[in-house]
């Protein structure tokens, strides 16, 4: 009887804790079971329950704890709570909290995610993507722009300016296109078939003068610059990074000293700048430079403030003392990128973006804009590049035959094809639905870091797998190689806008732990304001969350009381697993912050694994949302299942590694018992799913077309051939061609064709002569194989083609 009553009490407490019902129901459970135990079973169990009820009453009821317990906890909290610098405060306050905050609660409310459906593009936006974007991408060949020109063609530059590609974020009232975030990402996905083109269009529409002027510029600045930026009369760049300031942009040593200088015979109050910037995209061709610098007023010309902090200004290219025009050579595609230097460059105060009152507000301006820009430019390029890889890798592996079979039917090739399909599917869902959140008013700071890190890493993985399945076709550069240059340039997106190593280990969880947590920011604010009542509410609410997450993580890991989720039977189990891991993540996050305190900042690998858990849960949520609100096509169910299995496997793996490495071993063991009581249960996706996915993207299927819906799949619009369109044409005829391949190979194996007919073309002719092929079949196979051979062919060049200094050539074969 004692054991039964103990289990009843435990079940009752778990039920109450799971629902975070508060102290009173928990006290009620312990008192009731304690009374029953006192009369029917064990006095010791009753005593234990009564003591528990007393402790819970003392800690859980505000009227009891506020006068004696809370002040003591508050005093201790003030001593151990990490100090948040002003720079960190600005970053934490930038952006908004949305679904990422739900994941921190451990009990995500799916209604908050699903209520904002992706409504698609406006008619004008879709027309721009279908027409102007198609025209632009059809003018680009990777070899031509990267090697022959090291620039875009002049006709393309003219088109970009005429059609206002550089003005997507500029409102229509100032001459721009005024596109939604969804439209911007659709444009960049379409243009991602060429990295130089995507970067050239993406950067002016991301963090830079255009966005800063729209949000912070004076009306005079807006009226002057925005129309000129929109139509390309002005080409912008933004100088932030330099030799000593990369990912740590706040450490920039570039200075602006407030001073007076005579200009055209008049004394002008302004700023004398000294700076050195590197890696500035579009700098070689820019006509106006946005510049971030540290502003000082040592002589008090503006007031009592001496160090204003980071400030942003706009400087015309021809300003005296500024050196601009030289180029860096980015790996892969040499898009316009270079250094900018300035020695005693004098600018008037009204060059500051937003005017003098915005002096020192540069860091806030940058982080607020970055929360949106990082969600769009690089993630969109990653999504578009991955979709193009689906088209080329799937097509190539189907028409490339070895051992008398398409290589796409070989399991060694099917594994990377499946990874390409799944990572493309995840990437498209994440970038499209996060863009939709931006259009609904969110400024997703933490998701922007998640997307920047994971989607650019996925892009690199996809391109690596695509290179592998192409073999010699992709490693031989030239005009026919549609993959190699983009693959070489994938490292650029890994590095810029916050290096991925730093983003993973410092930013995703480091920012999210305070910004997205339901209570931590409130606790820190209460500390700063010395507000005992606010701290009491936040701290004990936080304690209730911890116990609630522990109860949910434990019971759901045992498949007891699975979360109620609004998804269909095909996806429900994944959503329930996500809810379970959300509770586990929330519990582990609190355990790490409690046991490590301020040291957590320095334990970057711990932070990184917590960030991995959060990231995979976020990406899985986007896949579920995409599945929920779009019409699935044939083959998409398997792709959804593979993708979610992959993400949940990674979530559990990150949880396991976190528990292995948490320094406080007793806490780590307790967490493992709660979160993984049955061990790791989510395996990597099964080979059967991989085989299905490989076939689905290497044949003419609805899911292949859905994955490529946002990229350039047609041909004939420009002077450049589209390899995706050519592969699509081959796949449409593949079933017929495959039957005829088998017929001729079977005849050859039986000795019905000459032994010397080793080439496919020779066998076709022999089959026609022997009556095995009809004339129509022979004509079809001649044409089909001619296109296949053309797609398999690689380039070659004259011996001296690659030597820049022809005088250094060696005659290796003298007469």
Account of the protein in words:
- With 815 residues, this protein is α+β, with helices and mostly antiparallel strands.
- Helices cover 59% and strands 8% of the residues.
- The protein contains 35 helices and 9 strands.
- Strands 1, 2, 3, 4, 5, 6 and 7 form a 7-stranded mixed β-sheet that branches. A two-stranded antiparallel sheet has the order 8-9.
- Strand 8 (401-402) and strand 9 form a beta hairpin.
- Helix 17 packs parallel to helix 19 (445-470).
- The radius of gyration is 31 Å and the shape is flat.
Brief sketch in words of this structure:
The protein starts with a helix and ends in a 23-residue tail after the last helix. Helix content is about 60%, strand content about 10%.
Q: What are the defining features of this structure?
A:
single chain, 8% strand, flat, seven-stranded mixed beta sheet, two-stranded antiparallel sheet, 815 residues, alpha+beta
Distance between the termini: 104 Å
Largest pleated sheet: 7 strands, mixed
Radius of gyration: 31 Å
State the share of residues found in helices, binned by percent. 55-70%
Structural class assignment: alpha+beta
Globally, the shape reads: flat
Strand content: 5-15%
Number of helices: 35
Quote the average pLDDT.
90
**Low-confidence runs of at least 5 consecutive residues:** none
- For the secondary structure, the number of strands is 9
């Amino acid at each position: 009887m004692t054991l039964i009553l103990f289990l009843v009490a435990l079940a009752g407490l778990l039920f109450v804790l799971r629902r975070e019902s508060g102290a009173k129901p928990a006290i009620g459970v312990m008192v009731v079971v304690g009374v029953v135990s006192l009369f029917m079973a064990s006095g010791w169990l009753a005593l234990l329950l009564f003591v528990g009820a007393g402790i819970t009453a003392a800690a859980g009821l505000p009227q009891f704890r506020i006068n004696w317990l809370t002040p003591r906890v508050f005093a201790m909290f003030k001593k151990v709570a990490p100090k948040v610098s002003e720079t960190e405060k600005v970053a934490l306050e930038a952006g908004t909290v949305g679904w990422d905050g739900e994941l921190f609660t451990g009990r995500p409310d799916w209604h908050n995610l699903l209520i904002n459906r992706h409504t698609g593009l406006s008619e004008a936006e879709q027309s721009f993507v279908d027409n102007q974007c198609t025209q632009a991408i059809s003018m680009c060949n990777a070899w031509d722009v990267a090697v022959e020109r090291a620039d875009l063609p002049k006709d393309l530059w003219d088109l970009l300016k005429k059609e206002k590609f550089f003005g997507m974020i500029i409102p229509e009232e100032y001459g721009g296109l005024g596109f939604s975030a969804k439209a911007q990402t659709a444009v960049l996905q379409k243009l991602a078939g060429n990295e130089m083109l995507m970067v050239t269009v993406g950067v002016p529409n991301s963090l830079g003068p255009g966005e800063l002027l729209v949000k912070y510029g004076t009306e005079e600045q807006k009226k002057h610059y925005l129309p000129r930026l929109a139509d390309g009369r002005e080409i912008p760049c933004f100088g932030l990074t330099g030799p000593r300031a990369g990912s740590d942009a706040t450490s920039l040593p570039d200075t602006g000293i407030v001073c007076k200088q005579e200009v055209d015979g008049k004394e002008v109050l302004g700023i004398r700048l000294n700076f050195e910037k590197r890696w500035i995209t579009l700098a070689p061709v820019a006509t106006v430079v946005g510049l971030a610098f540290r502003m000082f007023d040592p002589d008090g010309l503006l007031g009592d403030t001496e160090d204003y902090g980071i400030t942003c200004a706009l400087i015309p290219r021809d300003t005296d003392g500024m050196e601009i025009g030289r180029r860096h050579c980015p790996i892969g595609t040499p898009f316009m990128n270079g250094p900018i230097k300035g020695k005693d460059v004098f600018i008037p105060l009204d060059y500051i973006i937003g005017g003098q009152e915005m002096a020192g507000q540069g860091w806030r301006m940058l982080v607020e804009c970055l929360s949106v820009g990082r969600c769009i430019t690089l993630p969109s390029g990653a999504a578009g590049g991955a979709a193009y890889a689906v088209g080329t890798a799937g097509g190539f592996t189907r028409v490339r035959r070895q051992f008398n079979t398409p290589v796409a039917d070989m399991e060694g090739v099917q594994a990377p094809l499946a990874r390409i399909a799944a990572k493309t599917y995840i990437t498209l869902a994440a970038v499209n639905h996060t863009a939709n959140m931006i259009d609904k008013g969110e400024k997703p700071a933490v998701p922007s870091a998640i997307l920047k890190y994971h989607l650019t890493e996925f892009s690199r993985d996809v391109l690596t797998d695509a290179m592998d399945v192409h073999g010699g076709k992709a490693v031989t550069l030239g005009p026919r190689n549609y993959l190699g240059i983009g693959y070489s340039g994938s490292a650029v997106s890994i590095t810029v806008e916050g290096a991925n190593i730093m983003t993973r280990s410092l930013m995703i969880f480091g920012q999210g732990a305070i910004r997205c947590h339901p209570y931590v920011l409130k606790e820190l604010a209460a500390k700063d304001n010395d507000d005992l009542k606010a701290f009491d509410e936040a701290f004990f609410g936080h304690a209730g969350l911890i116990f609630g997450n522990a109860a949910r993580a434990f019971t759901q890991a045992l498949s007891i009381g699975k979360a109620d989720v609004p998804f269909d039977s095909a996806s429900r189990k994944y959503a329930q697993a996500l809810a379970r891991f959300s509770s586990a993540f929330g519990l582990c996050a609190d355990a790490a912050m409690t046991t490590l305190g301020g040291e957590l900042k320095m334990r970057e690998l711990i932070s990184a694994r917590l960030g991995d858990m959060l990231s995979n849960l976020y990406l899985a949520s986007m896949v579920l949302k995409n599945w929920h609100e779009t019409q699935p096509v044939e083959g998409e169910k398997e792709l959804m299942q593979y993708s979610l299995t992959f993400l949940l496997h990674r979530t559990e793996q990150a949880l396991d590694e976190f528990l292995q490495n948490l320094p406080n071993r007793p806490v780590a063991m307790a967490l493992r018992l709660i979160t993984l009581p049955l061990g790791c249960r989510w395996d990597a996706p099964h080979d059967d799913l991989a085989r299905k996915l490989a076939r689905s993207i290497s044949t003419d299927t609805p899911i292949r077309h859905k994955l490529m819906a946002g990229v350039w799949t047609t041909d004939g619009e420009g002077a450049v051939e589209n390899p995706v369109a050519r592969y699509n044409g081959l796949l449409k005829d593949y079933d017929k061609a495959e039957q005829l391949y088998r017929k001729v190979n079977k005849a050859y194996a039986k000795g019905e064709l000459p032994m010397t007919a080793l080439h496919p073309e020779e066998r076709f002719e022999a089959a026609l002569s022997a009556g095995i092929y009809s004339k129509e079949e022979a004509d079809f196979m001649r044409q089909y194989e001619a296109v296949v051979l053309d797609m398999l062919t690689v380039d070659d060049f004259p011996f001296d083609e690659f030597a820049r200094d022809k005088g250094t050539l060696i005659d290796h074969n003298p007469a």
